[in-house]
Amino acid sequence: MAKVLVQADDFSGAAEVGQQFTAHGFTARILLTTAATRLRELSSGGSEVVVVDTHTRSAAPGAAHAAVTAAVAGAGAAAVVFKKTDSLWRGNVRAELSALVGLGYDVVLAGALPAMGRTVVGAAPLVAGLPLRASGLWSVEPRPAPENLAELFAGSPVRFLGLEAVRSSDVPERIRSVLGGPAPAVVVVDGETEADLSAVVDAVCSLQLSSGNRPMALAGTGQLAGLLARRLAADAAHSAHSPAGRERPATATGRRGAVLAVVGSASRAARAQVEHLAAAGVDVVGPSSPQMQGAPGVRAALARGRSVALTVPEGRVDPSRSGALVRGLALAARKAQEGLRPDLILTGGETAREVLDALGISSLVPLAAVQHGAVISLADDGRLVATKPGSFGDPLVLAQLYRAIQSSNHPRETTETSMTNPQDDRPFIAVTMGDGAGIGPEVTVGALVHAGAYADSRPVVIGDAHRLRLAAEALGVPAEIVTVHAVEDAEFTLGRVNVIDPELLPADLPWGVESAEAGNAAYHYVRIACELAMAGKVQGICTAPLNKAALHRAGHVYPGHTELLAHFMGVDEVSMMLSTPKVKVIHVTTHIGLVDAIRKIEPGLVERTVRRGDGAMKRAGVAHPTIGVCAINPHAGENGLFGYGEEEEKIAPAIERLQADGIDARGPLPADTAFFLAGRGDYDLIVAMYHDQGHGPVKVLGIEAGVNITVGLPVIRTSVDHGTAFDIAGKGIADVRSMIEALRQAAEMSPRLALQQ
Question: Domain Four-carbon acid sugar kinase N-terminal spans what residues (predicted)?
């Protein structure tokens, strides 16, 4: 039984919400059916979150009501019910919420999407502060946009809560009071900021999703879903690990080849996105492109390995013909790839669903997002499917989706392929257990029994088998901990953890206590991993946290992992990169005092750091990274007002040389401005001059999924972005999402093995 049931009225919205939950460590599956038998069959696989796309955005109200009723009733009981609504208030909002009310749910609807400037104030829907009706975003709808949400719910049992109530200290009681009547009802809540949405989520969760005698459902946008996922993960101390019997996501069945894009919009924004897609190497085909001669020409191009984008005629679309246009596109897409199986990029929820239905795809697993709502999923036939809502994304979004697909490392083989299979090219990753007295053993086990642990790599732990068994017991997860003597002895099946154990820890080592024994063992785990890497036995390293004081107590005086790895691999200079879903940061200096850091910074070091970051981003699939370089002084020195000309002396010469070599490095930038712009998506990578300049913003912007990457070693090394957490060690409440992400990024950035002949 799923913990969370989500209903969406179109596919792009379903993918958007599904990805919000996977980003917080939940397993999720998107289902493209409302048939009760198929729903029960597909939703019984063990996913924590089941997302049902009812495909009712353009349906008649009665049909939409029936579909939602069937979906929620047919998928089985869930602890949490979330109804995804369109941020522009399109579709059958009233009818679909009425279906939930008919099933006995009170509904709290917070339909704002502040991340894209779509808000609700005084029950009026706004876009960038202006009325929705004046935005032009309803131009293809058969009726005008509502000026007030009361218009959408006329005659229905709906109440409204304004911003004053949302920002009060008693939001739960305000919600309970308006839903306290004898019959189920809907409350529509204003929202202008993410804090407003977060207050609603906190209130609903504090009420335990109940208004008293009735269950409570939450409804709103993908941003609200993300906040709900974050709160549910925190409430449950959700550690994102998967028992051995949990559903394993499908794996892609082929190396990435040609991509077929279907762009169901002719808007100005869509045309700009297609232009960038063409610049990335995709052939753009309109309805009358002579060079393709219709579907056979497109198919021939795909068969040659060329990626193709199908587009619609330019000009305003008659709303009465939009459905036929989308169905025509889906038919063209099906004919164009007969006998082939290209990966897909689909824009617009209706377009996406029509194409997926035409290809017989019935379920998908959301994987990742390149921008808000621009999601890549894995279909049940093994292909990658990238989707985005029609009105979402900047001009680069389609090109970013294309690059992400092209750089994907999903293997053709099942995740249970043994390492002896000569056709298996997944890289081997050495996973060091870290300090055995901290949470390292727990996050290591939790990550390696996760459903996707072996999808992209073959990890082997360097650590203590007994300690890992204790960690599995603490987490309450079944795990088969198997000691192996060499990487070649490892077997990779879900639930099995392969361990090379040098037997350095005492069996009675206490949890949460700094010790020389644990520090010494952690040192040697890293040493063994480096030796395996230098011998070519592993292609990457992923490290759990060690404790610097314990390391020093054992006589190994190194500032941290980065310097220890550089020592063992004989590298004079490496860089620390922190990676989160919102921003990536590489540091010019790290573990030295601030005065020493400023003294150490010089143009050569800045240039080498930026070059390492540029190379790492390209290996991660960003073909032309935009890099923001921070200044040292406030306001970048304000033309000499602050500091002693450090920017001109230490940074500017490096940027000039980098730009001359074609690297898009910009700066020196005021650090606050640089991180603001990076959080908005303007920069792929930020270069911080010293430790806290980079670490502070990263901790705010994404520590839950933060990953520490060492750049400049012979192999890639990733790590969690947290410490040993002695205070919670051994208690089974460690959050392993960062370790899962660290392992994923190690797999993504490590080279694939050359296939044996």
Answer: 5-222
**Distance, first Cα to last Cα, the chain:** 44
Reduce the DSSP state of residue 430 to 3 states and report it.
strand
Distance CA 372, CA 16 (A): 8
CB atoms within 10 A of CB 192: 17
Q: Tell me the per-residue pLDDT of 71-80, one tens digit each, with 9 for 90 and over.
A: 998 766 678 9
Q: Could you say which residues of the chain have pLDDT below 70?
A: 1-2, 34-46, 75-77, 235-256, 266, 287-294, 315-323, 407-423, 451, 581, 620-621, 701-706, 753-757
Q: Which of 429, 678, 383 is nearest to 542 (CA)?
A: 429
Domains along the sequence of the chain with CATH: 4-235 (3.40.50.10840), 259-406 (3.40.980.20), 413-571 (3.40.718.10), 572-712 (3.40.718.10)
What φ, ψ does residue 44 adopt, rounded to 5°?
-95, 10
What ranges in 681-749 are assigned the alpha helix state H? 691-702, 737-749
The token pair that represents 165 in the structure block:
């109530």
User: Beta strands 626-630 and 664-669: pairing type?
Assistant: parallel
User: Can you list the alpha helix ranges (DSSP code H) found in 652-736?
Assistant: 652-660, 671-680, 691-702
Neighbours of 722 (CB within 10 A): 20
Q: Angle at which helices 11-22 and 222-235 pack, to 10 degrees? A: 30
d(CA 522, CA 550): 9
Beta strands, E only, 208-280: 216-220, 259-263
pLDDT above 70: percentage of residues in the chain = 88
The one-letter code for the residue type at 188 is: V
- How do beta strands 130-131 and 28-31 pair? unpaired
Cα distance between residue 442 and residue 732, in whole Å? 7
DSSP conformation letters of 54-90: ---TTS-HHHHHHHHHHHHHHT---SEEEEE--TT--
SS3 (DSSP) at 160: strand
Rounded to two decimals, the pTM is 0.59
- Mind giving me the DSSP string for 604-646? HHHHHHHHHHHHHHHHTT-SS-EEEEE-SSGGGGTTTTSSSSH
Alpha-carbon span 420 to 417, nearest angstrom? 8
d(CA 464, CA 478): 17
Q: Quote the CA–CA distance of 196 and 215 in Å, as a whole number.
A: 22
The percentage of the chain sitting over the pLDDT mark of 90, rounded to a whole number, equals: 51
| Interatomic CA distance for residues 487 and 753, integer angstroms | 14
Spatial CA neighbour of 436 closest among 471, 461, 479: 471
Q: How many CA atoms lie within 13 A of 66 on its CB side?
A: 6
Q: What is the pLDDT of residue 599?
A: 94
Residue 636 φ/ψ region, left for φ over 0, alpha for ψ in the -120 to 50 degree band, beta for the rest: left
Q: Is the dihedral of CA 616, 617, 618, 624 positive or negative?
A: negative
Structure-token pair, residue 632: 């040292």
Helices (H), 343-439: 349-358, 397-406
Cα–Cα–Cα angle for 479, 25, 193, nearest 5°? 165
Look at residue 441 in the predicted model and tell me its pLDDT: 97
Q: What pLDDT does residue 46 have?
A: 67
Helix axis angle, 268-279 relative to 397-406, nearest 10°? 40
Q: For tokens 């029609």, what's the residue?
A: 390
